[in-house]
Amino acid sequence: MIPADIPALLAELRRVGNDHFRCEVKRSQGGPPATLWESISAFANAQGGCILLGIDERSGFTVVGVNDAGAMESHLGAVCSEMEPTVRAEIFTATVDDKNVVACYVPPTPRDQRPCHRRSLGPWAGSRIRVADGDRKLTDYEVAILLANRTEQKYDVRAVPGSSFADLDQKAVSRFLGRIRETKGELFRKVDDERALTMLNVLTVHDGDLVPTLAGLLAFGIYPQTFEPQLNLTFVAYSGTEPGTLGPAGERFIENRSVDGSIPFIVNECVRVLKRNMKRRSIVSGIFRIDEWEYPEEVLREALVNALVHRDYSDFARGMQVQVEMYPDRLVIRNPGGLYGPVDVGALGTTTVTSSRNKALLKILEDTPHFDGHMVCENRGSGITRIRIVLTEAGMEPPEFIDGVSSFTVEFPNHALLDQDAIEWLQSLDNRPLSRSQMTALVMMRNGAVLTNGTYRASTGVQDSRTVSRELRDLVERGLIEQQGTRGTTTYRHSDGRTFEQEEDLFTLTRLDDRDAEGSASTADAPTTEELVLSVMSRTELSRTDIEQQTGLRGHQVLRALQSLRDRGLVRMIGRPRSRSARYVATSPAPAPTERS
After folding, report:
1. Of 11, 44, 193, 573, which is most buried, counting CB atoms within 10 Å of its CB?
2. What pTM did the predictor assign?
């Protein structure tokens, strides 16, 4: 951050009305706040953030300044030095509205050094995490998993007391050994089965007996839940967009299942249950339409395997299951334990660099045949990349990855990105061919997204940054998008210098002008898209479909207008964003459309 960024940041905070995930303000006129260390710890254990001293949140983020900026900077530096590990913050004083504001940018602490905590309190009492606009104390499990992540994880190679070789599916083990001896060379052909399985971490010695490891039991167990009852998967299909929403008949959910067995069995059974609760629909693929499940099967398998293989198997997490939740507008898969190692959530799917807390389990499953003959996983760091590519090919939105300290979540929107309206818009361009990744990026930018080389890769599944640069340069040269900045600060957005809302207004004026040619309307009093939407709103709840039908606008126009009206506090949403089941209601009586001169 530089001083010039502070006014823009304050403007954003005033618009939102409170602090947020990356910024905390404090009045600080009575001296340094006692809770400074909490915010520093919280930002360091998340994605980093900025602390502004001399800003009064209660009076609308008014700049009140600090009395002694030099002393405040020194105090901030001292607090950063009291943290473990020491926080190397960027601290400076900026003049805003003729007053001194002290800014402190806290960088994120590397994953293998967390939790960042106050040294005098220790990690259990002195660690915080940033949640929305506040700082929360880390739970015992969160502290335990962060401390465990500092070292190599070996929970998957521990013996399972009470189990024996007879608890493994002998046919599955035989197929595994057959593949190992076929692909690993002469080494495993020279040793007997027990020796080979020990070398491969399927079996281990415990109290003088050869017993399955946790990895061996999860990969080949007849019923692993005999020994670990909670190491399974739960599936719930909800009728509404939130867990507490009741269905038409008062039902809480459509289906509620607990899926037990080995990892290959759980994946196969969960996909079967998901299909039972999915619909088949027409998916846009280029300029064609094909019948496909709501969520491609390959995507489901990859996501389920990732959740089961990369989850936390420490003692703290043995009572937690992998959770699959299906809603009308999205599919959520959640597993215990956040990301492990140096992998960042923003880089998922854009690089093959991988880090796993369950190395032995992954190694076993890469040579474990699935029911269809393919291996359960590749262990090449390509699973999420493949998920992005398959979703792009199906014309669907990219998934959202949420990395919490105690859990990792992937959310798949049940929404087609390249719908018919988007396809018609793409076909109206310069008639030169576009790659599928260019189509996806163009529609995202048309919908208001600002992309970089990295977010382009993350959204389209293209891994090579040089390919991305070439595709973006092509779009810039064709005048379809605009480039801003250079080198590491380069961003790309929809061209013509118009926001999406302005483009909608232009479309509306053109549409009304066409009607005027038929004597039914005049462009002199053509309302904007927002005014059209607001004119049909009342205290009665309306869906997006209702508003589309009453205004004659297209779906993406209504969606953007509603977002703008919500930002201005004129419309309130009931439900989840982008959900077709969400409903909207005006917060005040709708005004008459504004006349144009």
Report:
1. 44
2. 0.71
